[in-house]
Write a structure and sequence with these properties.
Blueprint: H1 19-22, H2 26-33, H3 66-72, H4 80-111, E1 172-182, H5 184-188, H6 193-204, E2 208-217, E3 222-231, H7 234-243, E4 260-262, E5 276-282, E6 288-297, E7 300-309, H8 316-330
Antiparallel strand pairs: 1-2, 2-3, 3-7, 4-5, 5-6, 6-7
């Protein structure tokens, strides 16, 4: 943001009165030399020239010629108060010019700096993680994207492992979830023990093709897991979502000491058209904080989990960031 300095106001001086107007003329000088009329003569009656003899002018003091009168007459000096005002105006004008120059230089200096380099204007981090630049993987020749008009079945033709969101900067990779294929047992292990058998059977009956997963832990202790489950068709992915009752509830509960409820503050920002996102959070604070979300995008169902052990809360911003980015990769 640049500071705007007011343009310096031009100093206007009062016009100097010409000396011709200040110097008396010869006629005025002669008139001033004539004596005043006698007091006993009424002003209304003209006085004859013979009644009032003219007083002779001494020879030693002749009347000055007009040009001499102009030379002798001195110009009337300007009042002292006017000179003081002019000097004050001049000083203030100089000050304005100097300050204006300094202000302009400062403004140019600020605009050339990064925002974070200006004291008081640095933007504090909002908690987002530093993910690498994302890009969609190449498709086999002649294969459209899942939501292309030519792809009526909404099938992901790209390698599912390349559609997994990468770990952000500073993360420690999970040795079991490295971005490759994982077993059904690995996925089912995220849920409560008494529900694992039921979920395993549902997966066996849903024409599941394979599961890709990646996990990591951040320096603050937040543990993240992302699973992508691909089915033979969109109908099977939709069927598993319905069978596990994922909608206003998270369906089969995770292996976590507290139950989760629908996150009503999630406004589906960043959701790709034709996809569905359900986000959930805790109702109470247990041993930690957890966020869970499901994304259905055509033939693929994604599960995103962020959990924090040993803290009352887990940051919601990086969870939503992860959710939005993974949604975009699947779209």
């Amino acid at each position: 943001m640049t500071e705007q300095t007011a343009a310096p106001t031009a100093v206007t001086e009062e016009p100097t009165v010409p000396e011709d107007e200040l110097s008396p003329t010869a006629a005025e000088t002669a008139a001033a030399a004539e004596p005043a009329p006698a007091t006993d003569v009424p002003a209304a009656e003209p006085v004859a020239a013979t009644d009032v003899p003219a007083e002779p002018v001494p020879a030693t003091e002749p009347l000055a010629a007009p040009e001499q009168a102009l030379a002798v007459a001195e110009p009337v000096p300007a009042p002292k108060s006017s000179r003081r005002v002019l000097r004050a105006v001049a000083r203030w004008t100089a000050a304005v010019l100097v300050l204006g120059g300094l202000g302009t230089g400062t403004a140019l200096g600020i605009t050339s700096m990064e925002r974070t380099d200006v004291p008081g204007l640095a933007t504090e981090g909002d908690g987002r993680w530093d993910y690498p630049e994302l890009s969609l993987p190449a498709l086999p020749a002649g294969s459209p994207r899942p939501f292309n008009e030519a792809n009526v079945a909404e099938i992901h033709h790209a390698d599912l492992r390349k559609l997994l969101i990468p770990a952000p900067a500073g993360a420690t990779a999970d040795k079991k979830l490295t971005g490759g294929w994982v077993s059904t047992a690995q996925f089912v292990g995220e849920f409560r023990k008494d529900k694992r058998g039921e979920l395993t059977q549902l997966l066996d009956d849903s024409a599941l093709r394979h599961i890709a997963a990646r996990g990591w832990t951040m320096p603050d202790g937040t543990r993240s897991r992302v699973y992508l489950l691909q089915f033979n068709s969109t109908a099977y992915a939709q069927g598993l979502r319905d069978d596990t009752y994922v909608s206003s509830t998270p369906g089969i509960p995770l292996d976590w000491p507290t139950d989760l409820q629908l996150d009503e503050s999630w406004n589906a920002g960043g959701k790709v058209p034709e996809t569905v996102v359900y986000a959930f959070g805790e109702t109470k604070t247990g041993k930690g904080r957890i966020h869970e979300a499901y994304i259905q995008a055509g033939d693929t169902l994604a599960l995103v989990i962020h959990s924090q052990q040993g803290k009352k809360t887990a940051e919601q911003i990086p969870f939503r960031q992860t959710l939005i980015l993974q949604n975009q990769l699947l779209g």
